[in-house]
Design a protein that fits this description.
mitochondrion, transmembrane helix, membrane, electron transport, respiratory chain, Helix Hairpins
Amino acid sequence: MFLQDSGSPLMEQLSFFHDHALLILVIITVLVGQLMFSLFFNKFSHRYLLEGQTIEVIWTVLPAVTLIFIALPSLRLIYILDEINNPVISVKSIGHQWYWSYEYSDFKNIEFDSYMIPINDMKPFNFRLLDVDNRMVIPFESQIRLLVTSTDVIHSWTIPALGVKIDATPGRLNQVSFSTNRSGLFFGQCSEICGANHSFMPIVMESISPKYFIKWISKMIEV
């Protein structure tokens, strides 16, 4: 009922499918509940009732049709999530125990590590256990290709507001494509239990305008 505001077209489609499936579940729950309520409290009986082929056909066909109404949008969404469009920027994210590192190979191979800010070093505007010292920065309304891997154990790069969840597996390079439709900060966390400090390797992605992104890249190259 309380999904985050979507920050990407992918998450919008996921929210629509969630509402679609939830509506079907509510209809089924109300129908079955009403039938059970009437069965408990009515006094109807039929001494010679042996079969009812009509009702048996109905309660076999209706669930099958209902499953089709859920399966078709679900399959469409799976293919949309796997679609790799022409990316403007490729960013590589590497999972470590217990921090993330990022590489912008399109821009003279900019590299930096992203650690959670300790509670003792937090500023008033930082979010406890969610903020990092170096954020991943991308331009909004641009197609981004994220390459994800790991150096030790399985991690999972996850940002719920974008509808993105991809495993970081040692020795394997996974990729996902996404874009953001607005500027802002998007928070996430590792979604695979990866060790003692699994809860302390947050992900923060900053979506900014392309003009400011170029300035940020220029500054990072100078450093």
